[in-house]
Amino acid sequence: RKSEPYMSVKADKHVCRVLYRLGITDNSSVAHTRRVLGRLNLHHPADFDAASWVIGREFSANRAAVSQLPH
After folding, report:
1. pTM for this prediction
2. Are 66 and 37 in contact (CB under 8 A)?
3. Taking residues 42-66, what's their average pLDDT?
4. Cα(47)–Cα(27) distance, integer angstroms
5. 64, 62, 51: which is closest to 19 by C-alpha?
6. Separation CA 71–CA 68 (nearest Å)
7. Average pLDDT, stretch 43-59?
8. Rounded distance, CA 65 to CA 48, Å?
9. Residue 3: how many CB atoms within 10 A of its CB?
10. What is the reported pLDDT for 15?
11. In whole angstroms, what is the distance from residue 8 CA to residue 4 CA?
12. What is the pLDDT of residues 1-15, one digit of tens each?
């Protein structure tokens, strides 16, 4: 696990969409999302990556499902 500090989140469309909708980034571009993620200094980036990807795929792409999430 010594390599964890050198890992990063893959900024694909699902991750970018989730971070934008959560207000972590102010636009959903891949380049901007990578810069913001670099400043977060995540201890376990792979865990964040997997969770945000699933949320983006399952909820953010489906506006009906997003509207049913608690605010």
Report:
1. 0.64
2. no
3. 72
4. 22
5. 51
6. 9
7. 77
8. 21
9. 6
10. 82
11. 8
12. 565 555 677 778 878
Residue 60 has pLDDT above 80, yes or no: no
C-alpha closest to that of 28 among 64, 58, 60: 60
Angle, nearest 10°, between helix axes 45-55 and 13-22? 90
Of 41, 48, 40, 52, whose CA–CA distance to 16 is shortest?
52
What DSSP string describes 48-59? HHHHHHHHIIII
Q: Do residues 51 and 17 make contact, with C-beta atoms less than 8 angstroms apart?
A: no
Quickly count: other Cβ atoms within 10 Å of residue 18's Cβ.
22
Q: What is the DSSP letter of 28?
A: -
Interval 35-60 mean pLDDT: 78
Query: Please, what sign has the CA dihedral across residues 63, 66, 67, 71?
Result: negative
